[in-house]
Write a structure and sequence with these properties.
alpha/beta; 8-stranded mixed beta sheet; 6-stranded mixed beta sheet
Length: about 775
């Protein structure tokens, strides 16, 4: 469906829409039943064919890659099912999609957003519940034939059926991602799922939103049969597989109707013992308690949906189905109007926006990519490129560095083999497209070169000149710098129109954001190619204008300067981490500096300080410099604010920092030192700088600003990003806070003009 905070704190993209089904081309309608239904001529989303005594109901949302449960689809589905139930010649039914990659990808989010009140959303939920209850109670067996995404409301349709058959294909995934949108399954899913897969597995599915592949779904009891996909023939493999799936499903539907097939599932001993244990109220209470504690720890109580899911499941199991259905629909309505759900749905729409190439199709596709520098970033970029089918060259200046980089790529792919998302043959096949080398051999065939060398303008200039001497005329040169202006790097280029910034985030294989930076001279085709490569790598892409720190580093700069000031005022790193994570940041502010690297933070702070002057002040940069001098570089050195040891989870504070913090201690200002003030000092500087980037045209719109902050910097997903937060908290309230801190600390808190404009005009919102 959409995005929920994952274990890394980052919202995961959601490949899911919520929508009830209606409408489809009505093929073979006449043989379905004699009816005066007005839908006869108008059905566009659902059609029905009769194959002997089996009705085949097909979902096909027009002009869409996926089927979603929209009002139209739902209404047509209801009509078709009523006709099937009224037709005595039909003994059973099969539900299938005409789209190979999508059974039903969920409910139509736009339909939910169009509701003005929680009562309207509750009504939607109740309509869905009633329809699916009719399917569950149907005297004629209904078989779900699943190929592609079966998510959210789509899974709720499938589990209301009497039998489920799925294609054993990587594209076939089942899941309940509603929690990622701040919602819960609202069409009976919270009540049916625990009965089908057991309480622990149901909680795991609903609270994480994770996707489940078909083979795992079969083991869990979520599907009853698997069908192997077919290869090519007279038709495409997808078309042949769907036909075969339909054939098999029709056979099972007939078998269920004439009782030669049983829908009863044989349970293994472990499952029987688990079911017996879960039937005992005190065991269930223990499970609820454990799950609640885990949710509280992970979400800090900032996300209402997970706790609601637990409450709704609990009510159904303890008080019966009527109470369960009622609280499910009411909770669905209540959650849909929360600011957290609106924020997460906003991020979902933002992700969809950032998965499109606004520059159009590039003139030539990038097929061969060269990466300079086999360090953490370079190897990460190589990994996400080679595993998407790009022929990749990884170049370093030292054999040792190159070996380490290639080993990192191997380890990254091998972890997928361990998780069974790749076979060892697929891993080796992918690695055969990676070439490690110490020279520029083969660069004459490169379509794009991405440099990930050290953050030093002289080194960047040196490699740019070397590369331009060997690459073809069409080849693009991209820099993975986090702060150096691209125009400065491009100053020595013979072809500045081919130079662009591609700022990846560490670790590259896990962080979803790619920030692309264009200069005044970057051509549109260069930008189109860079975005196309980013999308191929599976990234969420934002495009910003050039300037010191671009957008993301520039927002982070003032916040980290404030963190240092807070440390100097005597708040210890653990307390700062607790204060920032309590606000919703996935990683504590002091830990973040350790993760980024104190040397990198120092370097960036100096560059941004020179560019922006006093506004980027706050804490003393000398504190960072002394840390670097003492070797306290953060996680990579084993010591920063904390001590890092392999396998030790509870880090202790680095006692070597005591002396440094004592040397730079400044008197605290009690009027701005409460926990809330410290939170707001960090957040208001971040939001003010984000608004400044929009004001100056570095950002082209608030949507990309929110996506960049959440997916690149860990801005709390429950707040939806700095601009959505400004809308919900209120621009005037933000300005008042900034003025309060400005009175104490000066110009670092002076609100930018754009925020002032919005504060003076309450009807103005960044997101309408």
């Amino acid at each position: 469906m959409d995005a929920v905070p994952t274990s890394s704190g980052m919202p995961r993209p959601v490949s899911h829409r919520v929508s009830w089904v209606r409408g489809m081309e009505h093929k073979g309608y006449a043989c379905c039943s004699i009816s005066t239904s007005t839908a006869l001529q108008t059905r566009t989303h659902v059609s029905c064919d009769i194959k002997g005594d089996v009705a085949v109901v097909r979902f096909n949302t027009p002009n869409s890659k996926v089927n979603t449960l929209s009002r139209q689809l739902s209404s047509e589905f209801t009509d078709v099912m009523n006709e099937i139930w009224a037709n005595e010649a039909v003994k059973s039914a099969v539900l299938i999609s005409s789209k190979p990659g999508s059974f039903i990808a969920g409910a139509d989010i736009d339909m939910i957003e169009a509701c003005k009140t929680s009562q309207e959303v509750t009504q939607l939920s109740q309509e869905g519940q009633k329809m699916l209850e009719k399917i569950e109670q149907s005297p004629k067996p209904v078989v779900a034939a699943i190929s592609g995404s079966c998510l959210g409301g789509g899974l709720e349709v499938a589990i209301a059926c009497h039998y489920r058959i799925a294609t054993k294909d990587k594209k076939t995934i089942l899941g309940t991602p509603e929690v990622l949108l701040g919602l819960l399954p609202g069409a009976g899913g919270t009540q049916r799922l625990p009965k089908m897969v057991g309480l622990p597995a149901a909680f795991d599915m609903m609270l994480t939103g994770r996707n489940i592949r078909a083979d795992r779904a079969k083991k869990m009891g979520l599907v009853d049969q698997l069908v192997d996909p077919l290869g090519p023939g007279m038709k495409t493999p997808e078309a042949r597989t769907i036909e075969y799936l339909e054939e098999v499903a029709i056979g099972f539907a007939r078998g269920l109707a004439n009782r030669t097939v049983s829908a009863k599932r044989s349970k293994g001993l472990i499952q029987k013992i688990t079911d017996y244990a879960m039937a005992l109220p005190f065991v269930r209470r223990q499970v609820y308690k454990t799950v609640e504690n885990k949710v509280q720890k992970q979400t800090k109580g900032l996300y209402p949906a997970p706790l609601k899911i637990i409450e709704v499941v609990k009510t159904g199991l303890d008080q019966g189905r009527d109470a369960g259905y009622l609280i499910e629909s009411q909770s669905f309505g209540q959650l849909a109007v929360t600011k957290e759900s609106k924020a997460l749905i906003g991020l979902y729409h933002g992700q969809v926006h950032c998965k499109k190439n606004k520059f159009g199709t590039p003139q030539r596709e990038v097929k061969t990519l060269a990466v300079l520098g086999a360090g953490l970033m370079g190897a990460g970029i190589a990994q996400v490129s080679v595993d998407k089918g790009l022929k990749t060259i990884l170049k370093d200046t030292a054999q040792q560095g190159l070996d380490r980089g290639q080993q990192q790529v191997f380890k990254g792919l091998n972890s997928k083999v361990k998780k069974k998302s790749l076979t060892s043959f697929e891993r080796d096949s992918i690695l055969s497209n990676l070439t490690g080398q110490l020279d520029y051999k083969g660069f004459e065939k490169a379509d794009m070169v991405i440099e990930a060398v050290f953050e030093d303008i002289n080194i960047k200039h040196k490699v740019l000149k070397e590369v331009e001497a060997v690459i073809p005329a069409h080849c693009i040169f991209a820099s993975n710098t986090s702060a150096l202006p691209i125009s400065q790097i491009a100053a020595v280029s013979k072809r500045p129109e081919k130079v662009i910034g591609m700022h990846y985030f560490s670790p590259v294989d896990r962080m979803q954001l790619l920030e692309i930076i264009t200069t005044d001279k970057t051509s549109q085709d260069t930008a189109a190619s860079a975005v196309a490569v980013g999308l191929k790598q599976g990234k969420v892409v934002i495009v910003v204008k050039d300037g010191p720190g671009f957008y993301t580093t520039r927002c982070l700069g003032p916040m980290l300067a404030e963190v240092v000031r807070v440390l100097q005022e005597g708040i210890d790193p653990k307390k700062i981490d607790a204060i920032s994570t309590a606000f919703g940041f996935p990683v504590g502010a002091a830990t973040l500096i350790d993760e980024v690297g104190v040397d990198v933070a120092t370097h960036v702070a100096e560059d941004l300080g020179k560019a922006f002057g006093e506004r980027f002040g706050g804490g003393s940069i000398e504190l960072f410099k002394l840390m670097v001098e003492k070797g306290f570089l953060g996680r990579k050195a084993g010591k920063g604010f904390y001590v890092y040891q392999e396998g030790v989870k509870n880090r202790s504070l680095n006692s070597g920092m005591d002396e440094i913090l004592a040397r730079f201690k400044v008197p605290a200002k009690p009027e701005v030192c409460t926990d809330e003030d410290i939170q707001m000092r960090l957040v208001t500087r971040f939001v003010n700088e984000a608004a400044m980037c929009l004001q100056e045209g570095i950002l082209s719109n608030p949507v990309e600003g929110d996506i960049g902050a959440v997916f690149g910097l860990g801005f709390p997903p429950c707040l939806g990003g700095p601009f959505r937060y400004a809308d919900s908290y209120g621009a005037k309230q933000l300005v008042d806070k900034l003025r309060k801190y400005e009175a104490v600390y000066g110009s670092q808190f002076t609100p930018c003009q754009l925020l002032l404009d919005y504060a003076n005009s309450p009807s103005k919102k960044f997101h309408q």
